[in-house]
Every structure is written in structure tokens, then in C-alpha cells.
Write the C-alpha cells for this entry.
Amino acid sequence: MTDMKVHRRLIALVVVLTGVYTVVPSSRLHGQPLLDGLSLNELRVRAEQGDTAAQDALGFRYLTGRGVQRDEVEAIRWFRLAAEQGDAVAQSNLGSVYDAGRGVPQDYVEAVRWYLLAADQGNAGARHNLGYMYANGRGLSQDNAEAVRWFRLAAEQGFAEAQSDLGGMYADGRGVQRDDTEAVRWFRLGVDQGNAVAQTNLGFMYATGRGVSQDDTEAVLWFRLAAEQGNARAQFNLGNMLASGRGVPRDDVEAHVWFNLAAAHSSGQGRDTYVKRRDAVAEGMTREQTAEAQRRAREWTPTIEP
């Protein structure tokens, strides 16, 4: 499954470690797993016969270039055919492409319209994305309480991203009274599904002793799991723990590796912060150590969680 990510926000709660992600948009495109075994021709026959699941699956393949040349216009045509017939997954997917401006001009109002249609049918991904839209005032008036309502609906359906975001709202006191214990409970539910953002957030709670007993060793464990999936914030936090010897023996070479990877997976001000931290650690390293750290960063590959 391919994720289409748009802008991510975080709240920096301490100086050294980056803080809890409070709203992480999904804008994820959802395929049709039951149809994955069909050939492109078989899928097209079903789609042309009016099968909405096949239409959505065909749109997904065109958008992601799976087994066919990528064609965003054709993808949207199939999504729209299924969405207009009431297919909730297609409605959510169509909302996502408008949300991110992929193949169409970016249009938050239109994204919200499709998300609402899918959410009213119980689609968890659309409910999560609606929470994000309310939290950030995209396509509708900003409303943290309404954001929490939609995050909770999706979280209670087991949607990992929503579980992490709902935890973030509790941790930050947005739309609900701040409650670190409740935040940790939702982070753990996301962690149980291998969600890297939830892992990062739980690591932060352990590092700062919020909602749990302060435990640097446990913080390192969760930062590492998320970092190994490619989460830049976790990579930065893990680098800081290694550079300072918190919860793990100090290791400047490994810290350099994770700072380097965090910078490679980021842009803008976040990347500048990671580069400065990497370069600061490098000042105390030998040329051979720096070369070793750079080699390990080049050869690193992310783990894939189920």
C-alpha cells in the first residue's frame, strides 16, 4: 500500500527531543486487497461492468503505477465513477487526491465534501482525515473539539493513525482536557499495530515521564522501532539519546548515523536542525569514525511493519 503524505505538524515540548506529533494527516490511498490477485485486464472488465470496488482498485493502480503506467487523470476518472455510485473507499480516495492536489488542483473544500460522504458510511480513513481538516481549519472552520470527535470515531474502529492523533490531542490538551495517561493509552493502541508515529510519541512520553514513569531505556526502545521504519523525528530523538548516553551507552558514531538519516528524510527547518546536530557530534569524531557513520547511513534500509 502506498501512502500519500501531506504536511506534518508537531509540537516541540522540550529543547533536546522533538515532542509529540499532535496532528498527522493520513491522506492515504486505500486499495482493494480482495482484488489484488486480479490481472489488470480482469480488473478492467469488472470495472467496465460497473463494479465499484474494481473501479476503485483500478484507480489505485493507475495512481500508484502498479502494473500499469502511472496516469493520475485516469486514476481520478475511475475513483470518481466509483465515488459517485457511493463507494466509501473511492470517496475517501477522491478526497485524498483533492486534499494533496494530486492530479487535480488542490481543493480542501472538495476534499472535505468527499471525506464527509465516506465518513458518514463509517470509513475510518476518511474520519481520520476529517479530524485533521478540523484541527487545521482546512476546507472548514478550525474546531479542535470536532477534530477530537472524528479522531475518536476512527480510533475506536482501530485506525492506528487516528489512535496516535487522538493521543496527541490529549497530550497537548487540544479539544479535550490534557490527560497524559489517556494519551499514553491511545499511543499504545497505535503501537500495537506498529505505527511509527505512535512509537515516537510513546518514546517521548517515557523520555519525559509523562503519563508513565520516566524511563530512558524504554524511550530508546520505542524511538529505535520508529527510527528503523524511517520516522525522521524518532531518528533525531534516538540520535540525541545516543549522543548523550541516555538509556543506552553513548555512541557518537551511531548518533551521527541517525542524525544523518533524519536529515535525509526531512526538509526545511527540521532538516536544518538535524544537520546542525549531526555536525556538532562530528566535531568530536575522528575522520575514520565519520567515514564509518556515513557508510552505515548510506547502507541503511527501513524495516517494514505489517
Notes: Residues 1-15 have pLDDT under 50 and may be disordered. DSSP finds 15 helices and no strands in the chain.
